[in-house]
Specification:
The complex is a heterodimer of chains A (1074) and B (429). Chain A has 35 helices and 30 strands. Chain A is of the alpha+beta class and 1074 residues long. With 429 residues, chain B is an alpha+beta fold. Helix content of chain B is 34%, strand content 34%. The chains are: A alpha+beta (1074), B alpha+beta (429).
Chain lengths: 1074, 429
């Protein structure tokens, strides 16, 4: 018994199967993890270096180069990137994509590092961690015009409470300074009393030491003995004696220094809408549901702010995660201090929800349109059961996604929308065939079985070809590959389900429904429908099909002209792209709800001045009506992917601008960014660089990224300037900056030879100077899970005054104070505040953005044409690497052709197997390049740029396009095998397949139509892919119906010509001979 | 035949029509490609990098050196005890910090022993005086005796002469002569004895005089010791310390206390040895006490030490101070900025403008870097530049008045590079 036969004969298990799919699908819908873009697996490790007080140059020479050399030989390592700052840095080790066991690769890295012997002793232990990309889900700000310690205690408490919620992500503070017990020694006191900081530090250390004394084993028991140090409080430390005389006179710490419990002395100012604030960002890590996380945080904040919780939907019937979070906030033992408020912002989850809702809405609208089309073009029964089949297939797909751990994200959602049209195609083919056989007089169940069996292999072939053409997406390398990788899986799952549905379940339903219909009398509605069907069939079969028949005959007769016209149209279409009438942009900027502005002042700018600039920027942002909140951090910058602080200096600031929800604004984020940019023009004095980044949750980065690598910094700087000048000549390019943080002043002390006469050594002088400026950590204690240092150094006024430093006095081994200028040469130098390295060479990255509606690729291409050869020749010792988007594009495009080639070969094999011919598959596959016509003109008509997603859409389209022509050829072959001429068979096959082909095209296009017509800029990212598929399919439909028959005949002509040339006789003559 | 010909013609016609269609399409393709809009580029000159600058600044500045030292009073005195005794009393309300006058009684020691000594000396003097009187009487009588004895001697000599004459005349005997001679000798002996006694009296007198003086000295000494038991202040000033208590036994030379005159003080400032060539007596010094850096005292150098301290690589300059005793007190630790006497014209640049001993300038829109050694540092604000920097460097080299100094140099600003200079406060175009 065949599969359709089983389905028809056994309706009960089939229906049970359908119901279980539907129910399981419904459940999966609630539990499927939601995210914006698919998560990417970790493929990098981060090596963290901490060397307190060391300059980036010291770090490079003493640690980074050695580690890089050690790791470079590891097989699994693809690239090494290093970033070194004052006091520490990180090395990012990227592994090859083919590495299966990432943990082993990380272990190998750790092992190599552990083998290194000659690292500086003052450096802290090197840690190696697998880098898991983190997505900022939601940000929580604690704000108020209160003391910093109050804000800190509040935010610490919040974090501790939120941590207890299951499914909560990693939380990272921003704008929070660590506590520190500061002992600021007066400069003149050192001179007055003949002291040095190491002496003072040593005294404090000894007095604060806690030393276990051992155990007294007495008869009554063991008693531990312990010597406790001075209490870790400022008042107690002030009483520590540094020096005393037999007469009882003592010099105490409080006599020569100010001691207070405060925060670490770093320049840091954070503001939320102008108020002092501290932030807590919740990051998604690994397989976490961002929507759930954000909902919990929002509910918690509502409770802390005494707002009610509104339960939604079925939440009323169970203790949801939102309810749990709300209760946690409501029952918090620590009430909010007066004047302190908590607010959430930068809510990516809500943004994601909005987008997914949008797509769901579009999908539903598309589904309704599909149903309406089926209803209008087929009969209501077929429409109804096909639609049920569609729902079953979709539900089954959701179940498989749940099982395989595939999330509901933008790409998978889009995949489901695309595949919706395809799912319907199989059902149409099967139901239509069953209907036709039934109308010819076959019994319903027989018609159902035979009808399905008749199209069994063609339907299987169409599904296989579609699955195969999506395969190339799995081979795309890089970030784009990570994003696209899930799409073929979703499509394959959906098509597989569709196959099961259309060949097992649908025949069952159609057969039994037709059987029931034949026994029923027609109702009034039925009569109306019958009249409509008659009218429709008249128009289709008596008007349109004959007209088509005439046209196709004309085309076949003038087949070479027809093909020439088709080629001409294709040539002009390609010209539209090459001529820039239809622009190509690798990845357009998608809308965002959070814009991050990174501004940099000249190195050495005071924090007050930087804060003033930050205030100006914040003010300009708040002046935009679409802006909700502005959160600014001055003195620190965080990596948007990891949340970790990557730079701390008084000259940098990072401003987070949260926009209103997309539903509440009429312009997209890129326009708002431009408005802010315009508002700030000429208003930022002395600024060094400013860049704008939109957090979309997906691939981002500057529009243009160029990296210069080498070892000669001087030449690299020159090349960087030339490249920046080159890009600066383009009007549409702005925010050109580089990450070459040169400009950090450095006072270099070199001991004079005469210093040795006083007993000085470089180490002793260095220790004193370092102690004065950086400080000496004398003691560490833990309080509330935080390590607090007791740090001794000079008072801030001296420490922060360059002239004071140059006029320091140092204590000699004999206890005499000596001016530093007498024993050391002090020279003023420039050094790097940050050093970047890539592939074991110094690197400088240049980034730039382009104006909206400008293709960065065209700018880069023009730049390369004009400048690259000259620069490469002039700086032959340096490397120029186009990275960022350009690199991602290159990687994606590098891998795609191989995948496509494989796909086309597989499609050819399937078609050749199905047709039993070597040449017919070629004719069928010719539809693929011609579908470019619709793709290009579709973008032109709807005024969209072609993006990489359009190309992905084209890849997907190639499978869809093949389906229609596949069935047409199948019918052609069948007709010809019955003895009809090629021409007649072609016309007849076209007539037979006109309606289903048009219908399948219409259902696919209509399914995507709501998305294509979506004006909301949330969907802009996906629309090009929809346009590719719809436009390409439309043009391919024309091609299949009119040009494909011509191509078949042309192939026949060629075969005939070849036969005549080879044998000297026509084929007919040869057949007559035989 | 005709149908074959028309078929052939039809094929040719269709071929050419097809060719025209394809050619037309290729023509359109080429047109579209060649008329492709290129990204708009602007001339290089309009995209020059911006650089923040200030106009070159030439001012008269005094070279400065900074030193440290403690305040000492110029006029101080330790008040010692000059006798060994016991403290029996301290002046009322006398304690460290009290104002004292010159000659004011500070401490009373026990003078009883010294009084006794004075008495003894007095008595001894009296005895000596009596003895001297006695001697005077003896001398008087001895002198009288001597006169008589001399007379007797003359008589004896005369007798002896007469006797001798007699003998010569043969009237006497040798025995007479001898008797006369013996009488002469006896008289001489008496005279001698008397003279000896008289001489001995002189010696005795001398001794007595010496004894008298000694006793007089002892008496004076005792008197002084008595007066020394009243320890007084030697100068006007403030009692810095009082080191004794009532009942304490003090030995001679022990310090009772210390009095300082706070109105005249000096600061011994230690300056780096390399400052010696630039510093001279009379140079202005701005002093500030530790902890009161905002209060400045202007004074001058009064003396300079001729030697350097080899252990500290410093030398001392002395700065006199007159104070009312409120801010400047002995022992106060001070820092002083010594300014050279004559200001000299120097080109000043912000300290941060010099990197690796090079200064970056903009001349006629082009970067020029110069080797620029720092002569000395100047701590002062120059608001006319638009900068709030207080750390400036006086250059050894000269600049041109039209030079523009790059505030924050960068290695990317290389010689010959064209830039657009922007003064402080100017906004980005």
């Amino acid at each position: 018994m065949s599969i359709p036969g089983f389905g028809v004969r056994k309706p009960v298990p089939v229906n049970l199967l359908m119901i279980s799919f539907l129910l399981a699908g419904l459940v999966s819908l609630f539990f499927l993890r939601r995210e914006f873009f698919p998560e990417t697996g970790p493929d990098t490790a981060t090596v963290s270096l901490v060397y307190p007080g060391a300059t980036p140059l010291e770090l490079e020479e003493s640690m980074a180069i050695k580690i890089e050399d050690a790791l470079a030989d590891l097989e699994d390592v693809k690239e090494i990137r290093t970033s070194l700052n004052e006091g520490g840095g990180s090395i990012t080790v990227e592994f090859h994509e083919s590495v299966q066991d990432i943990d082993k690769a990380v272990d190998d890295v750790e092992r190599e590092i552990d083998r290194l012997q000659d690292l500086p002793q003052e450096a802290e232990k090197i840690t190696v961690q697998l880098f898991e990309p983190m997505l900022p889900v939601i940000r929580l700000s604690v704000l108020g015009n209160v003391e910093e310690s109050i804000l800190k205690n509040t935010i610490y408490g919040i974090r501790e409470e939120l941590k207890t919620l299951p499914g909560m992500g990693q939380m990272v503070y921003s704008g929070v300074r660590n506590y520190e017990l500061r002992v600021n020694v007066h400069r003149t006191s050192l001179l007055e009393h003949g002291l040095s900081l190491p002496i003072i530090a040593d005294s404090i250390r000894q007095w604060m030491a806690e030393v276990p004394g051992g155990m007294v084993r007495s008869n009554t028991g063991n008693v531990k003995v312990r010597t406790t140090g001075v209490v870790e409080r400022a008042a107690a430390i002030r009483q520590i004696v540094i020096r005393s005389t037999p007469q009882g006179q003592s010099l105490r710490v409080g006599d020569i220094a100010t001691v207070h419990e405060s925060f670490v002395d770093v320049d840091l100012i954070t503001r939320f809408n102008g108020q002092p604030s501290m932030g807590l960002t919740v990051f998604k890590r690994g397989k976490q549901d961002i929507v759930k996380m954000a909902e919990m945080v929002r509910a918690y904040v509502d409770a802390r702010q005494n707002r009610p919780l509104h339960l939604q939907g079925i939440e009323r019937f169970y203790h949801s995660h939102r309810a749990k979070a709300y209760e946690l906030g409501r029952d918090s033992p620590l009430p909010l201090p007066p004047g302190v408020t908590i607010q959430t912002n930068s809510d990516l989850a809500r943004f994601v929800e909005g987008r997914l809702d949008l797509l769901t809405r579009n999908a539903l609208q598309g589904g309704i349109l599909v149903f309406a089309t089926l209803f209008l073009f087929l009969n209501w029964r077929a429409a109804f059961w096909v639609f049920i089949g569609l729902s079953t297939a979709l539900a089954g797909t959701l179940v498989i996604m749940m099982v395989l751990g595939i999330t509901m994200n933008l790409l998978t959602m889009f995949g489901l929308i695309v595949v919706m049209g395809l799912l319907v195609d199989d059902g149409i083919v099967v139901s239509e065939n069953i209907q036709k056989r039934f109308e010819r007089g076959e019994p319903a169940l027989v018609a159902a079985q035979k009808g399905a069996e008749q199209v069994f292999w063609p339907v299987v072939a169409t599904v296989l070809t579609t699955i195969v053409t999506f395969l190339p997406l799995r081979f795309i390398q890089g970030r784009m590959g990570d994003l696209m990788g899930a799409l073929p899986v979703v499509v394959a799952c959906a098509l597989f389900m569709s196959l099961v549905e259309s060949l097992l379940i649908l025949p069952c339903h159609m057969g039994h429904s037709l059987e029931a219909h034949s026994k029923d009398k027609l109702t009034r509605v039925g009569q109306t429908l019958r009249r409509y069907e008659q009218w429709r069939d008249y128009w289709i079969f008596d008007r349109i099909v004959p007209a088509y028949s005439v046209v196709v005959r004309r085309c076949i007769t003038h087949r070479y002209l027809t093909l020439a016209c088709a080629l001409a149209v294709l040539t002009v279409s390609i010209g539209m792209v090459q001529g820039g009438r239809v622009k190509y942009i690798y990845l357009p900027n998608s809308d965002s709800e959070t814009i991050v502005i990174n501004a940099k002042m000249p190195i050495g700018t005071s924090i007050q001045k930087t804060a003033h600039i930050a205030d100006l920027i914040a003010k300009a942002a708040r002046a935009q009506p679409q802006v909700n909140n502005v959160d600014s951090v001055v003195g620190e910058r965080a990596n948007l992917n990891t949340g970790q602080v990557t730079g701390a200096a008084s000259h940098i600031t990072q401003i987070f601008i949260e926009l209103k929800p997309v539903e509440e604004r009429a312009i997209e984020s890129s326009k708002i960014t431009q408005n802010i940019r315009d508002a700030l023009e000429n208003k930022l004095p002395d600024i060094d660089s400013i860049s704008y980044t939109a957090i979309t949750g997906g691939p981002g980065g500057a529009d243009i990224t160029v990296s210069v690598r080498g070892n000669n910094m001087h030449r690299m700087n020159q090349l960087v300037e030339e490249i920046k000048t080159g890009f600066g000549e383009f009007q549409a390019v702005y925010d050109i900056s580089d990450n070459n943080d040169l400009g950090q002043r450095e006072l270099q002390l070199a001991l004079k030879p005469s210093a040795a006469a006083l007993g000085f050594t470089t180490a002793s002088v260095a220790q004193q100077v370092r102690g004065m400026l950086y400080g000496i950590d004398t003691h560490v204690f833990t309080e509330r899970t935080e390590d607090i240092n007791v740090r001794v150094r000079l008072d801030a006024k001296t420490r922060n005054d360059l002239q004071e430093i140059q006029q320091l006095w140092i204590l000699s081994p004999q206890g005499k104070s000596v001016p530093l200028s007498q024993i050391a040469d002090i020279t003023d130098g420039l050094t790097y505040s940050t050093i970047h390295r890539t592939a074991r060479k110094r690197s400088i990255s240049i980034t730039a953005d382009v104006a909206p509606n400008t293709s960065p690729e065209s700018i880069v291409s023009e730049f390369k044409k004009k400048n690259l050869d000259l620069l490469t020749a002039k700086y032959s010792d340096l490397e120029i690497v186009f990275g960022g988007r350009q690199d991602r594009e290159k990687r994606a495009f590098q891998s795609l052709p191989y995948g496509m080639m494989v796909a086309f070969v597989l499609v050819y094999v399937i078609l050749a197997w199905l047709f039993g011919s070597y040449t017919q598959p070629i004719a069928v596959m010719l539809a693929i390049p011609f579908s470019l016509v619709g793709l290009i003109w579709g973008h032109w008509v709807l005024n969209y740029e072609i993006t990489f997603l359009s190309i992905i859409g084209f890849v997907a389209l190639s499978g869809i396009v093949v389906n229609d022509s596949l069935i047409l050829i199948e019918f052609f072959n069948k007709h010809r095998s019955q003895g009809h001429s090629t021409e007649d068979s072609l016309v007849e096959a076209g007539k037979r397949r006109l309606r289903p082909i048009v219908l399948t095209t219409l259902t696919t296009v209509l399914g995507l139509l709501p998305l294509m017509l979506e004006r909301s800029f949330q969907a802009k990212f996906m629309i090009p892919m929809a346009i590719s598929i719809s436009g390409g399919l439309l043009s391919a439909t024309f091609l299949i119906l009119l040009v494909l028959p011509c191509v078949i005949l042309i192939i026949e002509d060629i075969k005939a010509g070849f036969t005549y040339c080879w044998h000297g006789k026509t084929r007919a003559e040869r057949e007559a001979m035989h | 035949m005709p149908s074959t010909y028309s078929k052939f013609l039809s094929v040719i016609t269709r071929f050419f029509v097809g060719l025209i269609i394809l050619s037309g399409a290729i023509g359109i393709f080429l047109f579209l490609v060649t008329t492709k809009q290129q990204p708009i580029q602007t001339p290089h000159q309009k995209n020059l990098p911006h650089v923040r600058v200030i106009s070159a600044l030439q001012v008269n500045v005094k070279r400065q050196w900074r030193g440290f030292g403690s305040v000492t009073a110029m006029d101080t005195t330790d008040v010692p005890t000059r006798v060994t005794s016991t403290v029996i009393a301290i002046a009322d309300a006398l304690e460290a910090g009290s104002l004292v006058r010159k000659g004011q009684l500070l401490v009373q020691l026990d003078d009883s022993d010294f009084l006794r000594q004075e008495e003894i000396a007095h008595q001894n003097l009296t005895g000596i005086d009596e003895e001297r009187k006695n001697l005077a009487v003896q001398e008087t009588y001895l002198k009288k005796r001597l006169i008589l004895q001399l007379e007797q001697q003359e008589l004896a000599v005369s007798q002896h002469k007469r006797t001798t004459d007699l003998i010569a005349r043969g009237a006497g005997t040798q025995q007479d002569v001898d008797r006369a001679r013996e009488a002469v000798l006896s008289k001489e002996q008496s005279v001698l004895q008397t003279r000896e006694k008289i001489q001995l009296l002189t010696h005795q007198r001398g001794q007595l005089n010496a004894q008298h003086q000694a006793q007089a000295s002892a008496l004076r000494r005792a008197g002084e010791d008595v007066s020394r038991c009243q320890i007084i202040s030697l100068i006007d000033g403030i009692l810095e310390s009082l080191d004794v208590e009532v009942g304490e036994h003090v030995t001679s030379g022990r310090r009772i206390g210390r009095v300082v005159n706070p109105t005249q003080m000096e600061v011994q400032l230690k300056l780096p040895a390399s400052a010696r060539a630039s510093v001279q007596v009379g140079d202005e010094v701005v002093l500030s006490a530790v902890g009161e850096e905002d209060h400045l005292t202007h004074t001058t150098i009064s003396r300079i030490s001729p030697v350097d301290d080899p252990d500290m690589r410093t030398f001392n300059v002395y700065v006199e101070l007159r104070s009312n005793g409120k801010r400047w007190v002995p022992g106060r630790f001070a820092q002083g900025v010594v300014k050279a006497a004559e200001p000299t014209a120097h080109w000043l640049v912000p300290g941060r403008s010099i990197a690796a001993d090079r200064l970056t300038l903009v001349r006629q829109g082009v970067i020029v870097t110069l080797g620029a050694k720092s002569d000395f540092l100047v701590r002062q604000a120059y608001p006319q530049t638009g900068l709030s920097d207080t750390n400036w460097t006086a250059l050894k080299i000269a600049l041109l008045p039209e030079d523009l100094v790059v505030i924050t140099p960068s290695r990317t600003l290389t010689d010959g590079k064209k830039v657009r200079p922007m003064l402080v406060g100017e906004n980005l175009p």
